[in-house]
Amino acid sequence: MASSSGDMVLEADYRDWIALLKPRVLSLVVFSGAIGFFVAPGQLNPVLAFTALLCITVAAGACGAINMWYDRDIDAFMRRTRNRPIPAGRIQPGPALGFGVTLAVGSVLVMGLALNLCAAAILALSICFYVFVYTAWLKRRTPQNIVIGGAAGAFPPVIGWAAVTGSVDLIPLVLFGIIFIWTPPHFWSLALWANDDYRRAGIPMLPVVSGAKETRRQILFYTIILVPLTLVPYAMGFSGLPYGVVAGLLGLVFLERVYRVITDQQDVQGNSLTNDAPAKAAFKYSVLYLFALFGALAIDRLIG
Fold it and tell me: What digits encode the pLDDT tens for the residues 128-139?
C-alpha cells in the first residue's frame, strides 16, 4: 500500500491500532473515572458500571487517536513519538482519524443511552476540549497549553460521578481541581527532560520558551497549591482521617521530589539542565502519586 508521498506504508496489526489509543495514558484516565463513580452517592449495577467505565475508556482512546492524527507532522521529529503508527507509516492518517471519530461519537451515544444525558454531555465536552481546545488550538501556540489543556484530563471523575447521580456536585469538582492543578507539575517534569524533542518539533512548551529555571519555579508553584488542595475532601468531611494522613504524606514526598528538581544543576544563565534524573524521578512519582491519592480516597470511603 502506497502513501501519498509515494513511500511504502508498512502493514499495521492490531497493536498499532491499540497504540493509537495511547494505552499508557488510558490507565490513569480510567482509574480516576472509576474513583468518581465509586465515591459517588448511590450505586450502579455491575453492567452499567462497566458500561460507564468502557465509555470513558473509549472516549479517552478516541482523543488519543485524533491527537495522533493531528500531530503526525510534529511526532515525526520527536524521538519519543517518531515510532508511533502514523509517522512510522504503519497506519495512514485518514483511517486513523475515522477510527478516532467513530470511537468518540460511539462512546457519547452509548453513555447517553445506557446511563444519562448529564454524563454523556460532560463526556462530549471532555472530548471536544481535548481535541479542539488543547490539541488544535493551545498546544502549538502557547507555553500555557498544559495549564489550560489540563482540564481535558480532569473530567473523568466528574463523568464517573455524573454516571451514578445524573448531576454534578462539589466533591467531583474538587477532584477535577486536583487533577487540573496536578497536570502542570506532572507534565512539565516530563517537558524538562524531553526539552530537546519539543524544541526540535517547534512546540512552545514552557522549558523551550522560558527556560528550565522558570519551569522549575512553575512546577514548585503548582505543587504548593496542589498539596493543600488534596486535603479539601478531608476538610469538607467527605473523607476521614486515614485519607487525610495519606494525602499529607504523599504531598510531602511530592514536594521533596520537586525540591530536587528546582535544585538541579543549572548553567550560568540558569536555563539549561545538566542532569535530568530529578525531573524523570518527579515525573514518575507524579503518576504514582495520583494513583495512590485517589486510591486512598476510595479505600477511605469503603471503610467508612
Answer: 999 999 999 988
163 and 175: one domain? no
Instruction: Identify whether residues 160 and 255 lie together within a single domain.
Output: no
CA gap 26, 209 in Å, rounded: 29
Number of domains in the chain: 2
Query: Quick one: 89 and 212 in the same domain?
Result: no
Regarding whether 142 and 260 lie in a shared domain, the answer is no
Are the C-beta atoms of residues 212 and 273 closer than 8 Å to each other?
Answer: yes
CA distance 178 to 294: 10
Structural domain harbouring 48: 1-168
Q: What is the pLDDT of residues 155-164, one digit of tens each?
A: 999 999 999 9
Residues 6+ apart with CB under 8 A from 237: none
CATH number of residue 54's parent domain: 1.10.357.140
Q: How far is residue 246's CA from residue 240's CA, in Å, rounded to a whole number? A: 10
The DSSP code for 287 is H
In contact, 36 and 75? CB cutoff 8 Å: no
How many CA atoms lie less than 13 Å away from 83 in the CB half-sphere? 3
Q: Are 160 and 56 in contact (CB under 8 A)?
A: yes
| 266 SS3 class | strand
Count how many residues are written for the chain.
304
The predicted pLDDT at position 2 comes to 39
Residue 8 has what DSSP assignment?
Answer: B
Contacts of 147 (CB under 8 A, 6+ apart): 183, 184
State whether 163 and 178 are in the same domain: no
What predicted TM-score, i.e. pTM, was given to this entire model?
0.90
212 and 130 in one domain?
Answer: no
